[in-house]
Hints:
This protein is an alpha+beta fold. The protein contains two helices and four strands; from the N terminus they run H-E-E-H-E-E.
Amino acid sequence: MKEILISLLNVFGCAFWVEILTETPNCTYYFGPFISQKEAQTSQFGYLEDLRSEDAKGIKVKIKRCKPNTLTIA
């Protein structure tokens, strides 16, 4: 049931996504969709840990409602 709700929210651009921008490499990553801002905030730490383990630098995080067309933009 939760997956259906997330899918509907995502179709209308109302789902929450974690947007992570890195300076090195110069990339934008999207992780999601999530049903709530709190769920996205909780999940961001695992993504940050992965990027740090890959030596990403200049990391900035935003939690926002959007509907990304591409999950990784280099």
